Amino acid sequence: MATQISDVYDVQDEARSVYVPDFDLHLPDVTKLITEDDEPVDNIFSAKQQRLLVETLYASPELWNPPERPFLADANVGIFTTQNAPPLVPDAFVSVELEMPADFDYNEVRAYLGWVFGKMPDIAVEIVSNRKGGEISRKMREYARLHIPYYIVFDPFLVLGATKLYMYKLSTLAYLPTEQEFIEEVGLGIKLWEGEYENSTTTWLRWCDRQGKLIPTGKERAEQEKARAEQEKARAEQEKARAEQEKARAEQEKARAEQEKSRADTAESRAEKLAAQLRALGISPEG
Questions:
Q1: What is the pTM of this model?
Q2: Rg of the chain over CA atoms, in angstroms?
Q3: Domains of the chain: which residue ranges?
Q4: Which ranges constitute the DSSP H helices of the chain?
Q5: Of 43, 56, 99, 272, which has the fewest beta carbons less than 10 angstroms from its beta carbon?
């Protein structure tokens, strides 16, 4: 009998539950599951958007996941609840508190198998391409049945209406719209961003922190580090220039002091010479 999703495998790690895929279970035969159908993604934008959502999480985990919780994020991967049901394939998903063993067999487990991973993802994201997807109807109901806590729909081309971003939170067995911009349980916020990614400038869906600051991509982090390094270099050069100016001023002050001393010494010498001449003439210099 197949192990059900409700059979959760926990490892207590600093008072938090971490789900670890368990290969010691009697797993069902998954060789007949269709985990890859070789269908291309529906458009170039969706492919780029999927990469953006996944890449940022792995490029900057410490900016959104400071407890260093294990997590799994991916795009266009099937989520199976049982071996007999067809999968749901979100454009992106995030699953926290999920420990991936170093010897995880990616050849044997080629999709997100609920009975192996022990939990459902915490966030599912869908990108709307056309009205056939059913993102806020059929798919929404299907994700709700999986008990995925948060469901995000991005409609970049305004196919569904005048709103580009829809966010839902699970309430019992149905999703309700939420104005919540930050998902406390996961440590991520979501926002629309106008900018350039992979040489394309448009409106993108981006993860952000509690203050709304974007979680940067690897390229953005490299550029930020480069900018910081250049700023540090500029500050160091400014400090060096200031130090050299201070040194120059000190040397000028020393030179002036030496000139003043030289002038004083010359005046004193002249006075002494004059006094000696007066005494030679029998005149007292003191009057």
A1: 0.74
A2: 36
A3: 10-215, 217-287
A4: 44-59, 114-117, 138-145, 218-280
A5: 272
